[in-house]
Amino acid sequence: MSATQEVGEIFGNGSGPAHAMMRSPTVLIASVALWGMNIFYYRMFGINYAKVLKHDVLLLEAKENELSSSQSQSDHNSGKRHRGTESSIIQNDSILRSNSNGEIGKALEYASDDEEYYYEDEELESPEVANAAVTWDKLVWFSMSLLFLLHSTYFVWIDVLGGNQLGAVLAFYGVVTFAVVFPLPSTRWLRKASVIVLQRCFELVNPRCSCVITDALRPVPFVDVFFADAMCSLSKVFFDWGMLFHLLSHYPHPVPPSPYNILIPTACAAVPFLIRARQCLVMWSYCKLQPKVSHDFHKRLTHLANALKYATSVFPLSLSAYQKTIDPKRAEKLEKYLILLLVINTLYALYWDIVHDWGMMQKSPISTLCAPSKAPQRKCWHIWLRPRLRYGVAMSAIILIADSVLRFSWMLRFYHRIFPSADSFVLCTQFLEVFRRAIWNLLRIEWENFKQGNMRQSSNQYSNNSANEDEKSSFLPQPSVQMRNILPQGKQSTA
C-alpha cells in the first residue's frame, strides 16, 4: 500500500509524457498475469479460491431469502389468528426449526467445505462451458497478448501515423474494449470475467442499508473486501486516469501546475482507500446491531482500527501530489513530513498484514481452532506463524519476509540516481506493489479458507446440539393455551 503513495511527473505538454501514459496499462497487464499466478498456486495447493470468495455472498443471500420467507409465512399466520393461538405458536415454532437447517445450512455446507477440495472447472461438460472458465493459463496468455498490443499500438500510432502518446493510450483502451465486447466464443471467459468485475465495482459503491430502517444494514462479504484491497494496490492507476482526464480537457495545451488541477487525480487515487475505510465503518455499525455474545467490543474496535489504517494511506498520497504544484524549495521542506507519513503507514499496514490478514503471530481462539486435529508437538514456527500452513513453513516464511521488504519499496526514492526519471521510479514501485499484492493474496485466501472451515465445524456442532434438543423435546407433551397463560415465561421455555 505504501509504495503507491508516490506520484511521478504529472504536468507537462498536452500529449503527456510517455512513461505517464504507458504506466497504467502496463501495471494493469502485470496485475492480470499475477492473478493467473495466484490461481495456479491455489490449484497446486488444493485451495478452492472460488468457494472462499463466494462463501459470504451465499450466506448473505440465503439469510435474506429465509428472512423474507419467514416474514411472508408470519404474515400468512397472522391472518389466521381467529383459528386459535395454539396453532399459531406451533406453526411459528416449525418455521424457526426449518430455518435453522434450511438454506443457510446448505450454503454453509457448500461454501465452507474445508476438507474436500475440488474445482468446478475440472468437471466441464461442454466446450461452451470450457470457453467460459477463467483459468490461470488463459490469464497469462491474455496478459502477454495485451503487452504485445500495447507496444504495437504505440508504434503504429506514434511512429507510423505521427500521433501522440495520449491518442495511443486511448486507442489501446478502445481496441481492448472492442475485443472483449465482440461476441467470439473464444473470448466468452473475458466477458464473464468483465461482468464479475463490474458487479463487484457496483457493490463497492452500493449503499449497504435501506437509509430508512437502521436494522437493515447488510454486512460486507469477503469478496468485496478482497476486491477493494486489490484496488488499493492500483491507486496510482486511478491517479493516472484522473490525470488523463485533465490532459483531455486541456489538450493540446499543457496542464498548468496548480493545486486545482491536482485535486481530481488525487481524489481518484484516494477512492480505493476511502471505499475500504467505508467498508470497515459499515462492519463496525453492523457489529453494534448484533448481540453482544457474538460481536464484542474488541471486534468493533478492530474494524475502527482497520479504517484508520486506510485513512493513513491518503495523507502521504495527497502530500506527494501537492509537492508537484509548489516551488522545489518548499517541496524539499515537506519531504521530512512525507517520509514520516510513509513510515507510519508502512508499519501500520505491515502489522495488519501479519496479524489480522494472515492470522499469524497471535494466540487467538480462531488460530487454535484452525490447527489440525492431530497436531504434532508444538514447534517454534507455531508461535511465529500458525499451527496450520497450507503452503508449508518455508514458502509461508518467504512470503512473509518478501511482503515485509516490499512494504518499504518506497525507500528506493533515496537511490533516485538508478532511475532515469521520477516516472521510472514510480513505475518500478508500482510493479513491486502489484507483486507484493499477489503474494499477499496467497496467504489471505488461505487464512480465510481456514476460518470458513472453522465456521462450518461450529455450525455442524450447533446443528447436532439443536437436533438432540429437538429429539428430547419431542417426547414431552406440549402445554395447552390455558397452561401457557398460567406458567411463567421461564417455565414455558422449559416445557
Characterise this structure.
With 495 residues, this protein is mainly α. It contains 20 helices and no strands. It has helices at 18-44, 49-78, 85-100, 103-111, 127-132, 136-160, 165-181, 188-205, 222-232, 235-250, 259-288, 297-323, 328-333, 335-357, 365-369, 380-384, 392-407, 422-473, 481-486, 489-494. The longest helix has 52 residues, at 422-473. It is globular and about 65 Å long.
Search tags:
20 helices; globular; disordered C terminus; 495 residues; mainly alpha
Per DSSP, the total helix count is: 20
Average pLDDT reading: 76
Overall number of strands: 0
Measured as a percent range, the helix fraction is: over 70%
**Portion in strands:** under 5%
Short account of what is shown:
This protein has helices at 18-44, 49-78, 85-100, 103-111, 127-132, 136-160, 165-181, 188-205, 222-232, 235-250, 259-288, 297-323, 328-333, 335-357, 365-369, 380-384, 392-407, 422-473, 481-486, 489-494. The chain is mostly helical. The protein is globular and about 65 Å long.
